[in-house]
Write a structure and sequence with these properties.
Distance between the termini of chain A: 48 Å
Shape of chain A: globular
Strand order of the largest sheet of chain B: 2-3-5
Helix content of chain B: 25-40%
Number of strands of chain A: 2
Oligomer: heterodimer
Distance between the termini of chain B: 80 Å
CATH class of the domain at 56-173 in chain B: Alpha Beta
Number of helices of chain A: 14
Helix content of chain A: 55-70%
Number of strands of chain B: 5
Radius of gyration of chain A: 21 Å
Number of domains of chain A: 1
Largest sheet of chain A: 2 strands, antiparallel
Largest interface: A-B, 14 and 15 residues
Structural class of chain B: alpha+beta
């Protein structure tokens, strides 16, 4: 009973942190994009009490710290229009399916490391340290494509339909390259004679020395590009392509349902960045070749902060790339996915299979 | 004759596309740290050039005398008929020789087209289009500037002639005209 309570509190904290991260990613998106374009960004929203503290209040207001609250409330209070021509059941289901996998995948993402000072036992800070971690993650996160397909189809209108088709084709094609690109990592983690594991925690433990990004750069690159494609970020934002498809798959959505899509998309980005950090950038290890020595509660805090910092860098990268690269044409996306990424990841897999064979024997 | 541009074949790095992405990223990063272009409007205002035709206003001379003598030339010249003047007598002794001043002077800013003809036609240099450029209000009545509002907006402008003062002095010295 007590353990259950702890688990529930833990889960609540994680969800709250994830949602906060999503909200502030939206703010970061707006701020960074405006900085890159030479603008100032949201700097007017303020709260009555905190906003009137001298020095700090105006500074926070200028940074737009209170903007996410206003954005969220706007989504809540806008009129929720359900057009007459939609298939109501699937129309309502789609935004839910968009958010649920994103929140489910966070259960297997370890975000820190607690070493008991007295006993020296290492406890991963994760909601569920299941042995099939990466498989679970891939399986659940690829359910997200259903939300886009359903939204595109249920909206029963041409732009969402095109957006849905494009998105599903794109997400399915890049999932192959993504899956193949992480195989070398797990080949190395599952050394012969060791107990087999697909847990993300063990992947991080295997990166105490070299990070995988350093000796598997091609894998890391393919994975990163696939994450961009999977989260529908520019230059792969075929699903939305607002200059071509109005809003893409969420054209017919308004108010809170649109907000759910929005949050789901950013949650996917946060998770994507986190998984990239875990698989290739050493998780919570602050520097390569620096064995983890800090024990106790402070060690746990430092590990969580390191991990968050790295994940947030990827959030920044997502935004940064968005304002740097133009959108690919649909055929270019497909050509890149099938003719370059897939063969490259297969070649990469074979090459590392041979390298790992010689390293292990 | 058609010009054929020979393009160099791309080398391996260029085909890889990655160095170009990195170059692009560094460009956008530099732009991010560069000074911002935005002018934060209500707090910051753009510099107004000389001779700008803003909202028409009435001005007083440095002695505080209202310059308008309600000749109504501006009322007649105004293309959209935005100006309405009711002339009145001058009450105070000192400027009695001016004879007239506007009793009421309304400029309807919903009609005004900022052409500046009133300023051009005014023989007394009493009406000026100054650098105020944003007028807003909640009702049509609010958008009509009355005399007080016009003097408030106009303020005082330097005067080079003091025409009426000189006239009065000349008259007192015995040589009118």
């Amino acid at each position: 009973m007590n353990e259950l309570l702890i688990k529930i509190t833990f889960a609540l904290i994680v969800v709250v942190v994830l949602m906060t991260l999503c909200a502030y990613s939206v703010l970061a998106e707006r701020k960074v994009s405006s900085w890159i374009q030479g603008r100032v960004g949201p700097n007017r929203t303020t709260l009555p009490l905190i906003g009137s503290i001298p020095v700090i209040g105006p500074m926070l207001t200028r940074l737009g710290i209170f903007q996410p609250a206003a954005d969220g409330l706007k989504f809540l209070f806008k009129e929720d229009v359900i057009p007459g021509h939609v298939n109501k059941f699937y129309y309502v289901l789609a935004p839910i399916i968009s958010l649920v996998p994103a929140l489910t995948t966070v259960t297997v993402v370890p975000f820190g490391h607690f070493i008991d000072t007295a006993t020296g036992d290492a406890i991963p800070l994760v909601l569920a340290d299941i042995n099939v971690g990466i498989l679970f993650l891939f399986a659940v996160s690829s359910l997200g494509v259903y939300s886009i397909v359903l939204a595109g189809w249920a909206a029963n209108s041409k732009y969402p339909f095109l957006g849905g088709i494009r998105a599903s084709a794109q997400m399915i094609s890049y999932e192959l390259a993504m899956g193949l690109s992480v195989l070398p990592v797990f080949m190395w983690v599952n050394k012969p004679g060791m107990e087999g594991t697909l847990s993300l925690y063990d992947v991080v433990l295997a990166q105490e020395g070299l990070w995988f990004a350093m000796w598997m750069p091609v894998s890391a690159l393919i994975f990163l590009v696939s994450i961009f494609a999977e989260t529908n970020r520019l230059p792969f934002d075929m699903a939305e392509a607002e200059t071509e498809l109005v809003g893409g798959f969420h054209t017919e959505y308004s108010s809170f349902k649109f907000g759910l899509f929005f949050v789901g998309e950013y949650a996917h980005m946060v998770i994507g960045g986190a998984v990239m950090t875990l698989l290739f950038l050493g998780g919570w290890h602050p520097l390569p070749f620096l064995p983890w020595e800090i024990t106790g509660i402070w060690g746990a805090v430092v590990s969580v902060l390191t991990f968050l910092g790295k994940s947030l860098f990827f959030m920044f990268l997502f935004i940064w790339v968005r304002w740097t690269l133009p959108r690919f044409r649909y055929d270019q996306v497909m050509r890149l996915g099938w003719q370059f990424m897939l063969p490259l990841s297969i070649a990469n897999l074979i090459a590392y299979a041979i390298i790992i064979y010689f390293l292990d024997t | 004759m058609a010009i054929v541009l020979k393009r160099k074949p791309l080398n391996f790095l260029e085909k890889l596309y990655l160095p170009q992405i990195v170059a692009g990223l560094s460009t956008t990063f530099k732009r991010m740290l560069a000074p911002k272009e935005t002018m934060e409007y209500p707090e910051e205002r753009p510099p107004i050039p000389k001779g700008y035709r803003g909202v028409p206003t009435l001005v007083k001379d440095p002695e505080g005398r209202e310059k308008c003598v309600s000749c109504q030339l501006c009322e007649f010249v105004c293309p959209p008929k935005a100006i309405r003047i009711i002339p009145g007598e001058i009450q105070d002794e000192e400027h009695a020789n001016v004879e007239k001043a506007p009793k009421e002077f309304d400029i309807d800013m919903l009609r005004c087209i900022y052409c500046g003809m009133c300023e051009e036609v005014c023989p007394e240099e009493a009406i000026w289009l100054q650098n105020q450029y944003s007028m807003s209000g909640y009702s049509r009545e609010e958008m009509v500037n009355n005399k007080e509002k016009l003097y408030e907006l106009g303020g005082t402008l330097p005067d080079q002639h003091f025409k009426w003062k000189k006239k009065k002095e000349a008259e007192e010295a015995g040589n009118a005209h």
